[in-house]
Amino acid sequence: MKKDIHPDYHTIKVVMTDGTTFETRSTYGKDGDTLTLDVDPNTHPAWTGGAGKLVDKGGQVARFNKRFGNFSLKK
Known about the structure:
Strand content: 15-25%
Number of helices: 2
Number of strands: 3
Structural class: alpha+beta
Largest sheet: 3 strands, mixed
Distance between the termini: 74 Å
Radius of gyration: 25 Å
Shape: elongated
């Protein structure tokens, strides 16, 4: 490895939203700093499956049905 081109890699403490902590190595801050998370896998809907709803009010499907709803291939 080349000298003096890599960032300082050291141990930090990470505090999750529920208060749990763990130590990891990172380039964040200085040795011994604390990283407090606002969003983490315990609370974010992307990881928890959240209350996401797919509602298509006037979206692509509704516009398609409005435009081609009466179209048929009957002979």
